[in-house]
Structures are given as C-alpha cells and as structure tokens.
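== Protein entry: sequence and backbone fold ==
=== Local backbone shapes as whole numbers ===
==== Amino acids and backbone structure tokens ====
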Amino acid sequence: MTRKQAAESASALVAKMTVEEAVSQLTYASPEIEHLNVPAYNWWNEALHGVARAGSATVFPQAIAFGATFDPDFIKSVADMISTEGRAKYSAYSKHDDRDIYKGLTFWSPNINIFRDPRWGRGHETYGEDPFLTAEIGKAFVRGLQGDGDFMKSAACAKHFAVHSGPESMRHSFNALATKKDLAETYLPAFESLVTEANVEAVMGAYNRTNGEPCCGSKTLMIDILRGEWGFKGHFVSDCWAIQDFHLNHKITSSPEDSAALACNCGCDLNCGVTYIYLYSAFTHGKVTEEQIRTSAVRLFTTRYLLGIMPDGEHNPEFESIPYTVVECEKHLEASYTAAVKSTVLLKNDGVLPFKTENLKTIAVIGPNADSRACLMGNYYGTASHYTTVLEGTQNFTQSKDIRVLYSEGCNLIENKVEPLAYENDRLSEAINIAEQSDAVILVVGLNEKLEGEEGDQGNASASGDKRDLLLPESQRRLMKAVLETGKPTVICLLAGSSIDLEESGEQAGAILDCWYPGAEGGKAVADILFGKVSPSGKLPVTFYKNSEMANFPDFTDYSMKNRTYKYYESEPLYPFGYGLTYGDTYVKSAVFTENNSEIKAEITVSNDGNFDTEDVVQIYCKMSSEFAPRNPKLVGFKRIFIKSKTETKITIEIPEKNLLVVNENGEKIKDGTPTFYAGMGQPDKRTEKLTGRKSITG
C-alpha cells in the first residue's frame, strides 16, 4: 500500500467523523468509534532496545551500546527482530481484544538526541555524541523497524525534537538556546537524515523550549523545518504531558485550551497526555480550525492504514501470521549476545586479557554489578525469561575447566553497607579475602538506571536522573582501591551508560572492559571476551573525560557546542571518541583517497599483525581548512570489518559530499576549504595514538 492510497483511505474515513470524534482520535489512547468500525488503539509503545513494558521480549543491549558497535547493517537486523516480536505480540493481544498501553505497533524509538554532556542521565538512550554516527545507526534502526515492503511492519519515531539533552530537573521549563550554526551542525542533522533518507513515520517533540518556542508547539521546528524544509509526511507526537507544560511551566499560554490550540496549529497530531481534551473547546472558540483537526486525524489514520491494522483496509497476511514463538527465539537471543560482544569496548589491557585458563585455579568475581540483573538492562526494557549476569557467565564458562569461582558483592551499589544493621563496609573484608585467595580478579562495578536515567523515574531524586560528576559512588571507589591493593591481576568490568572516570583504580587495573548495559545475555558475552572465546571490538560513541576537567566544562545548561564532544573539546580526554582496543593488532597500512562525481572514495588496506582473529572498525576523519569547520577532525565515514590474524584486507569507504560541507554562522551548509583525511582505527589525535601505539594515515 502506498502512502497516497493510505492517505486516501484515511481521508475518506475521517470525513465521516464528527469534529468531536476526530478530536478524540488525537490522544494516545484513541477510543473506539463503533458506528465507523474503528477499533480502539493505544499509540504508546516503546522499543528502544527490544519491545518494552509489555511482558516477555528479547532484551538487547541498551541503545548506547548500539552506537558502540559502529555497525548499521547489524543494528538494522536487530531492529527487524524487534519489529518481528512486536508484530507477534500485537497479533496475540489483538486476538484477545487487548488494546492496552504498550501493545500497539507505533514504537516511540529511537532516541537520536546528541549526548553532548556526560552528566545527562538519559544519554545512554542515545547512540552517542556524534551527529553522523547517530544518523547512520538511527537510519538503520528505523529501516529495520519499519521494513521495506508494501506495508509498514511497525512505525518508528525519531525523538526528542529538538535540542534536548538535560538537565532533567529543568526539562519542563527549560529554554535551550542554540545558535543557527549549532542547530545545523549538531542538533538537527540526525533528525533530517531520519526524515529525508529513512522516511521515519513519526517525530516526537521535546519537553523543553528551543530558542523561546516550546518544542511541541514550535512554528520554527515543526512547520518551517520539519514539514517545510524536510518535507516530513508522517505524524508528530508530543512527549508525554509536554503540552500542559506550555501553561503550567513555560508560561507561553494561559490555559489548557490555548496550549492545545498552539500545539495543534503547529502540527502536533497526537497528544501523549490529556491536554487535547480541551481541543474541542478550542475549536468551538475559534482557536483551531476543523481543517487542522481533520488534517491531524488523517495523518494518524494514514499510519494505521500503512500498518495494515484497520478493519476496512488492506492487510498483510505475512505479518499477521508471525507466530508468538518468535519472541525470545534462539535467533534473537543469539543476536542479543552478538550485540553485547560487538559493543563491548576494551579500554585498557596490559596483557592480562584474555585470561589463560591453564594458569587459573581460582578466580574472584567481585562487585555490586557482578550478579545484578538491573545493570544488564538500562531503561525502557522488556522482560527476559532468562538473564545471564557476569558472575553467572563466568561460572558457566569455567564450569568444565576445573576453575573455582569465588564471589563477593563487595559493597552496595551506592550505600555504605549491604545489610541495614551491619557496620559500614560490611562486605569489604570478604572481597579482600577472596581476592587474596585467587589467581585473578574480575571486578564488576558501575551504575544502573536508578543512578542515571530519566527525571521522575529514578532513585537519585536529588539529581533527577542526571549525574553530578563522572565518578562511581564512594562505596565502589573504596572497594576498587581495597581489591587492587591486594596486588592480584585485576580486570575492571564497567557496566554503565556514560563517561566514567575510574581515577587511580583505572590506572592500577590490568585491564578495563566497558560493557555498557549489555542486555539479558550480557554476562555470557562478557565472559566469552574475558576468556578469549571472542575479541572485543566496540568503539566509544562518546568521549570519556577526566573528572578533574569537569570544573572547566561548560555549564550543563549551556547548549553551545564550544568545548563539548570530541569535535570541539580543547583538552586531552581520558579515552577518546572512536577508541577501543581488540585482542588483535589491527591498523591501517595504506589509504588512497580519490574524488569521483563529488564523492570521495577511500581505498584502504588493513593489516592484523596480532595472533587473534578480530572485528574492528575502520574510521575516516576529515579536517577542513575552513574557518567554519569544527576545531578537531570529524568522523565522515566508517566500516566494521572482520580480519583474521596475520592477514590483511582491502576495503572501500565512500564519503558523500554532504559529509564534507561546513556550516557557517547563519546555519548554511556550504563548500569551503580543503579537506585533509585521516584513516585509522580511531581518531587522529595524540591521545588515541598514545593509547594504541598507532598513527592514522593521512590523505
């Protein structure tokens, strides 16, 4: 079914409705219209890294880990599996007339905001700090969710439009000020790519204002840019209860009726919230036209017809026949495991990894995240029927190898003791004891969604989900120090969704694995990496900063990009964007850049001089000589490859002309300056060179 056909069916249906009935369809819990054979439909569903909040589903690693894979093709396949499970669940629920929340086919994912500040609690929902990487992973995710056939498999939603990345405590009243240059260079490119290249079906507005306009009632964002410049054809949805912020918090309007009218007149078709109960009153008072109401209703029903879920519309037997048994099937669980492997970043390795089992008789697994399910999932998650923690993964791997595994929680995640009636540090002596008796230590620390996440949902209410600094809680810092003082070979496994500075413990540890929130199968993936069954190959989609530098960092409320992210940062990072080691020794041996029809083609030879087969990510950066170019070279192309030990391979990376444009102060993308290209397995900066011992090839 084409969009034109779906829109024609939607128009014919909406024409039969009264204005009041049409208004009723503009809320996320759209009621049944019995005489028109329109079933009830709840638009609110989540699929950030698996079908969420509606029972069993495959729980993939958190979104930030998708960014760390640098592998759009693989992420597209993951999103296709998510939509397959979504279809199976929708069919099963609909069969029993279950039209509840989280049970539709309109998924409010992906989150493509830019992770500009490491303190932002929701950053782990994104694909990182780079607009190009975010766009490539985001487009792949949308294409996987929506499919490429005659019918839409499920509807994706690009959120939160736009200029949204904290602070969480101020999001309902905050005015994000962004220059035209920062808008065009950083905050809008991923949204533009998803709209113009991936045909994302929905866009969700943010809570905050941008340059004075509430994002869910912004003529600039919604009318001029989204539908005007980009030609967006889908539907627009408010963030949840964001429209009531117009009058309650932003003070842009004086009543719910005016707020509803402003949002609708700017093209907000669907209200996640309750403010649109005042929309009919706004209509009767001449504040919004019947035409505008019907236009929004037509857009929404166009989506439902494209999904093939309207009783009087065409249907897709293939989608409707997907059996419920695909939920958590072997193929999907394997993909979750693979995603965890591809995304795990080896930050440091002095040779302790991979573990050699023949040298181990006893191994200690220590830490509050070692046997935690919460740290596997991140937020916006489904319910897995089986979880493998890092402790369980280690036990399973060593079971047949005559290696004893000792375990201690070591400390509470954030409190100063585990047992309420005990003295402080009540698990510390146990942790030290088993470390002393072991040949090696796996120290599993980090955060979970209760310590970094969304305002209103989290346990660190004082920060509303955001982080105050880049350090782990004091309880964990004490634990790391005490365990490392035993002198035993120690690997730190960090399970968190953002930049963390491990301070002296990071310097003393033999190896550091950044595992993110690795999904239900995460513990198996981590164990297989630790013991050398597979090589780590993830790359950082965000810069890891030194906590001591945060004093010089821009204020959290400052949305200028100066001194933010790898493209504009003025100091040396702890670990750079794009960085990540493997068990191999891969590097770019040669790179030849040629121009053809305004496209740059990079012919690259990659060698692996190491003793380990591995995947790795070839990255192309570009520094334009223009005064308008970012301070540092920017990512313009990348490709994930597999390369066997002691071999070399040749690849081609094509760089479209648009990636070489610079943005002037008026927000115009222009050709200006001469490019210098760099090809390597990371950035062409001194810190990456020091950490890897390799220089990028210049072209």
About this structure: Residues 177 and 211 are 5 Å apart (CA to CA). The longest helix spans residues 72-95.
